[in-house]
Amino acid sequence: MTARPREEHLPEDSSVPPADRLIFQSLGIAVMLCWNELPFRVRDQILNQSNDMIGVAPVQGIRDRIVGLLSRYRKA
To answer: Distance between CA atoms of 46 and 1, rounded to whole angstroms?
Structure first.
């Protein structure tokens, strides 16, 4: 059995209500499931926007982390 990397816990952004967090999470999963069907320009725009979201604390290296997540959970 291989060791899994330790999950990194990001600080919670208190400006986002818990119900909204669940909606954002669901939307993110839906986008992820449709990722390969999105035009390249739209995918690039989503990745670029992830670095510049007003009201949400920035996450260092978010674009690379998103690409890594997409790679790990790529729809077969």
So the answer is: 35
SS3 letters for the chain? CCCCCCCCCCCCCCCCCHHHHHHHHHHHHHHHHHHHHCCHHHHHHHHHHCCCCCCCCCCCCHHHHHHHHHHHCCCC
Query: Mean pLDDT, the chain, as a whole number?
Result: 79
Contacts of 13 (CB under 8 A, 6+ apart): 55, 56, 57
Cβ 35 vs Cβ 42: under 8 Å? no
Specify the pTM: 0.64
CA–chain centroid gap for 64, Å, is 10
